[in-house]
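pipeline stage [seq->struct] | target=Holliday junction branch migration complex subunit RuvA | organism=Ruegeria marina | residues=224
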Amino acid sequence: MIGKLTGRLDYRAADHILIDVRGVGYIVYCSDRTLAGLPGVGEVVALYTDMVVREDLMQLYGFPSLAEKEWHRLLCSVQGVGAKVSLAILGALGPDGVSRAIALGDWASVKSAKGVGPKTAQRIVLDLKDKAPGVMAMGGTVAQAMEGAADVIEMSEPAPRARPQPAAPSGAAAATAGALSALANLGYGPSEAAAAVAQAAGEAPDAGEAALIKAALKLLAPKS
């Protein structure tokens, strides 16, 4: 199973790219959002990947973060949702948007993706609501996937290049994970904690861990 690719971006098409890894080309399908965030042709690119193998099909799908890859896997586990629909949802909402929509039961946001009907959107929210807390707490960005990029390209460059250092999980991911952990320690259930943190993060995307906890506790407080 291929879980990550690091190489040169050889070409890009409407829904996929070709990554050259030491002379071997891999076709990788990506969402519109992921494609828009990739570097130019000839530059080094790294993506986490998920491979689909069937009797008459073998395809790779690429994602800039571990959280997005996990959402793709979970979305495809829902009845009636294939890779194309999953990429449409992730392209429209992004992994953070998917997390918020599912944690809050906001199937209308999921339905906004191309090719997603109301019944499918409702099924996605219902089936995956309990999965949201775990994915929301995940870190891992494309910057971390770039670790080792120098090893891939050193054979084609006369001068050695310094190995890029892996990046720490993004501040938003770390804040979300910390807030979820704090609420769990206070006795809140995973689903209600995830919904509160998702709503708090949606209202204040740049909030730190302490601010998220405070806002989530306000949302969870009994209404008088």
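stage status: PASS
auto-comment: The domain at 171-220 is CATH 1.10.8 (Helicase, Ruva Protein; domain 3). DSSP finds eleven helices and five strands in the chain.
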